[in-house]
Each structure stands twice: as structure tokens, then as C-alpha cells.
Amino acid sequence: MLKGSKVGLRARHEDDIPILQAELYGDVVYQSRADDGPWRPITSGSGDAPYVVDDTEVRHAPFSVVELDGGTLIGVASLWDIDNHNRSAHIGIGLLPSSRGKGYGTDVVAVLCHYGFVVRGLHRLQIETLSDNVAMLTAAERNGFVREGVLRSNAWVMGEFLDEVLLGLLVQDWKPDSTG
Ligand SMILES: CC(C)(COP(=O)(O)OP(=O)(O)OC[C@H]1O[C@@H](n2cnc3c(N)ncnc32)[C@H](O)[C@@H]1OP(=O)(O)O)[C@@H](O)C(=O)NCCC(=O)NCCS
């Protein structure tokens, strides 16, 4: 398990999946904001079921996020589109509703930076998030990510096009203890 100051990032367990499907995938607004495709009902247990991990997908490192104190499941986090030639990857995070706004997200970004830069030897990490997602923007910026651009009207979300912000962090600018 990878450890931050508040959270642990571990492999997905079988009994995480129904909780994640109900609390994250079952929330149509959350899922519409998080995904770049349309929400649709998916039968649990089907091959397309969300949060089931395909361990053969080497460009994706999916974690379940737990509280360090007690081990309660609080969400998911991943490095995705890991590119070992350009040594870059993207960060994705989704916390269960009851675990948001408690400082966990900032700590998850810190742990993912450690995983990307130290464990995987990457050079650049990237985050794309909706421009109104203040919590994600702040969690990223508190870890040293800088805004590199706005992708105007890049996301169709619940009946409207929304802007996305692209943030990046290079390994030489990363300060492991920057979250304070
Ligand atoms: C985005 C997310 C990962 C952030 O994690 P979090 O644990 O809620 O955020 P934190 O508690 O670490 O807060 C980060 C900062 O944002 C601020 N913040 C938190 N929630 C906020 C909100 N709803 N509105 C405005 N600011 C907020 C906090 O005050 C904190 O700033 P500070 O460090 O200066 O005090 C989490 O809210 C989440 O999973 N949301 C739903 C899924 C999502 O949006 N994922 C990102 C897709 S790219």
C-alpha cells in the first residue's frame, strides 16, 4: 500500500466494487462530470461493470483509496494513459460523497505524485478537470500543479458544454512536502 498523511492507496478488492458502483457510478451527475462518455445503466457483474480492474491494462494503475486510520474505503484514484516513452500520465480521483472536503483529495494527489515520479520514474503528470471544480483545482495546485490552459467547451455535461482546465506538474518542479 502507498501511504500519505491521511490516506492509503491499495489494490482494488472485490468487496469495494459494489460500494463504488452504488455511490459513484450510481450518481448520474457525478458520473457525467467525471466521464467523457454518456452515463448508461450497467448491470453489476457484466464485463463492462465500472471499477472492475483489468490487470492486463499496463497503461492504467487503478487504486482504491482508504483512510489510513481504520482502512475504510473512501474512493478511487488512478494514473491513466501511462506513457513510458514520453514518461507522462494523467491523474484521476473520485471520492465517495461523505469523504469529500476533508483534505483527503489533496493527500491523494500527493501520493499519486509520489507513485508517478518516484515509483514509475515519470517526468510529467497531467490533470484535466471541469473549470468549476474548485476542490480538484485547489487539491492540484496545493501539490504544485500549474494551469497550462483552458479547453473551451470541451465537455458535454448534463445538457451544456463546460470548459475544462488542463494542469501539469513536471518532476523538477515537484516538492514532495508542498501540501503542508
Ligand atoms: C475533487 C476531489 C478529489 C477533491 O478532494 P477533497 O478531499 O474533496 O478536497 P480537499 O478536502 O483536499 O480540498 C482541497 C481544497 O479545495 C477546497 N474545497 C474542498 N471542497 C470544496 C468545495 N466544494 N468548494 C470549494 N472549495 C472546496 C478545500 O478548502 C481545500 O482548500 P484548502 O486546502 O485551501 O483548504 C473530491 O471532492 C471528489 O472526489 N469530488 C468528486 C469527483 C471529482 O470531481 N473528481 C475530480 C475529477 S478530475
UniProtKB/TrEMBL annotation:
PROSITE patterns: GNAT (PS51186)
Pfam family, one: Acetyltransf_3
Record-linked Gene3D superfamilies: 3.40.630.30
UniProt-listed InterPro entries: Acyl_CoA_acyltransferase, GNAT_dom, Ribosomal_N-acetyltransferase
Residues covered by the N-acetyltransferase domain: 7-163
PANTHER family given in the database record: RIBOSOMAL-PROTEIN-SERINE ACETYLTRANSFERASE
Protein name per UniProt: GNAT family N-acetyltransferase
Lineage, opening ranks: Bacteria, Bacillati, Actinomycetota, Actinomycetes, Kitasatosporales
